UniProtKB/TrEMBL annotation:
GO terms for biological process: immune response. PANTHER family: INTERFERON GAMMA (PTHR11419:SF0). This is Interferon gamma. It is found in: Secreted. It comes from Electrophorus electricus (Electric eel). Keywords: Cytokine, Glycoprotein, Secreted, Signal.
């Protein structure tokens, strides 16, 4: 009897958790539709105007490797600045820069691509109505991916 009761409770909890997720998703859907109508973004000219979807589903990297790439980029800047300030150790600094460049080329290609994507996303003109319309049309799918994303173990 206990196992049947536990099974019923488990099913109820699963249904309740799914209902909460679907309810939030439906709420988002309605909010976006309201905004699309208000800003007159429902016409056929807006179909396919995705702003962020092209960045999703790509072969990505780990957060730690992205941070390491950022550090390597800063080292390149530091070494360049040091070379500009003093020519005495130029050869040593050149070697360090070559080593960093080789490391980036051999072990951080995915991260460099992701870094470039991040720079592109951050450079979007958020005050541009065309960008806003494309982003709003794209919001539901981006939100869905972001809300269901699971970290790879």
């Amino acid at each position: 009897m206990d196992s049947l009761f536990n099974l019923v409770i488990m099913c109820g909890l699963i249904i309740a958790s799914l209902t909460g997720t679907m309810g939030r998703s439906l709420h988002i859907e309605n909010e976006v539709k309201t905004l699309l109508k208000h800003y007159k973004l429902t016409g056929p000219e807006w179909v396919g105007k995705a702003v962020f979807s092209p960045y999703l589903g790509k072969n990505t990297c780990t957060c730690e490797k992205l941070v390491l790439l950022s550090m390597l980029n800063v080292y390149m800047d530091i070494f360049s600045d040091m070379m500009n300030k003093s020519k005495e150790k130029k050869a040593v600094l050149e070697e360090l820069k070559k080593s960093v460049a080789l490391l980036k080329a051999n072990k951080y290609t995915k991260e460099q691509a992701v870094w470039q994507q991040l720079k592109e996303i951050e450079s979007l003109e958020v005050n541009n109505s065309t960008i806003q319309g494309g982003a709003l049309n794209n919001f539901r799918s981006v939100y869905e991916v972001a809300s269901t994303y699971r970290r790879h173990q």
